[in-house]
Amino acid sequence: LQRNPGETEFHQAVREVLTVLSPVLSKYPQFAERKIIQRICEPERQIIFRVPWMDDNNQVQINRGFRVEFNSALGPYKGGLRFHPSVYLGIIKFLGFEQIFKNALTGMPIGGGKGGSDFDPRGKSHDEIMRFCQSFMTELYRHLGEYTDVPAGDIGVGQREIGFLFGQYKRITNRYESGVLTGKGLDWGGSLVRKEATGYGTVYFVNEMLKARNDSLEGKTCIVSGSGNVAIYAIEKIRQSGGKVIACSDSNGVIVHEAGLDLDLIKQIKEVDRRRISVYADHHKDAKYLANGNIWDLPCQVALPCATQNELDDKSAKKLIDNGCIVVAEGANMPTTPKAMNHFAEAGIAFGPGKAANAGGVATSALEMQQNASRDSWSFRLTEQRLQDIMVDIHKTCHDTAEEFGQPGNYVIGANVAGFLKVARAMVAMGLV
Ligand code: NDP
């Protein structure tokens, strides 16, 4: 705490991992001897930089850029870029810390990192977004490389922004280095299924959790918070798996449509028109928009928080439990507060932590890197099959590790311990670096 003052979200993420590690440290004393905990909590490198850009009124604007290269024991730093006004070092460090263990769980050769800026893309023109991305990359490029650090998207950074960033990297370095960024467009080195991967992966994880309880998504009522990339493709896969999604949201309110959400309309509003989700209610008379509503007040059996950190608090957790919810899986990073997680554990809810449940996105980014390295592009079917296999494996790893450490069914312990073990072993093997 004293070493990293004010970095609240980072403290929360570290606490979640460390509280479950004592049996691991007893079993493997070499980790304590080699000070793995202290080393893993300290980023290998943190870069903070000025991002000056010109707005459409010819006014100079200044933002702050970040890249935290947290851990490269398993491979090049890998993790997204977030553009949102709430971004500061504590947010990037929490995301980068989570990313280390998530990436380890995927079984792919990728280390952990994260970056972003306090730039607010909302209300900015296409050209302003482009100028910002170009300025951001003009500093960041010197720290990147397919063997060094490979960013991707996150909140506020989608394929459009990755395009501007990639274009500027190519221009500055004079290299068509496809593997330096993931989440690229399909015409220029992107991978099929990357767009869908995080949402689809979360639902595959839910399917596995339900299977472990001899149950399935068939006929289940579900709610999905957010209406961005993760939420949209979680909704799509739930529908393909026989579930019904009755609500989604954004930071202003909630759309409720008991008949089941109209996914084509959501895609049109969010991906094509880039408008707010409230517009949905103008198209369906039987849907309601709840301005400032709390999505977790709605009765459901499956709840997927897919928006942002700490969006599901203890009151909301109690409400979900009282309303008969049986499964919660985190499509977003750290959306559930620690108190809410405790409630779910006490109530015996199947709870999939983000490190495991939303790892499909970064896993498919690693598949994109594989395709770039071999100058190949795989079919949708093959890539989706690989994604599904990876999510089934992650579920099994978390499930079996939780059992091994005497906490059957506790995926939080399973994910944190399994992810930590892999990274810690590699760090010990590589000596004091
Ligand atoms: P997007 O920017 O595409 O979407 C984010 C969505 O969340 C928007 O609909 C946004 O609404 C909404 N939102 C933000 N804050 C709140 C809030 N307080 N209450 C309700 N809704 C809110 O981001 P992504 O979908 O890519 O990311 C969502 C989460 O998933 C993040 O935690 C991210 O780190 C995580 N994640 C993403 C991955 C990916 O591949 N994209 C991979 C793994 C994790 P508004 O427009 O009002 O801000």
Automatic annotation (TrEMBL):
Keyword Oxidoreductase: yes
Pfam families: ELFV_dehydrog, ELFV_dehydrog_N
Matches recorded under Gene3D superfamilies: Glutamate Dehydrogenase, chain A, domain 3 (1.10.285.10), Leucine Dehydrogenase, chain A, domain 1 (3.40.50.10860), NAD(P)-binding Rossmann-like Domain (3.40.50.720)
GO molecular function term, any single one: ATP binding
Keywords: ATP-binding, Nucleotide-binding, Oxidoreductase
Keyword Amino-acid biosynthesis carried by entry: no
PANTHER family the UniProt entry points to: NADP-SPECIFIC GLUTAMATE DEHYDROGENASE 1-RELATED
Subunit annotation: Homohexamer.
Protein name in the entry: Glutamate dehydrogenase
Organism: Natronomicrosphaera hydrolytica
Name of the coding gene: gdhA
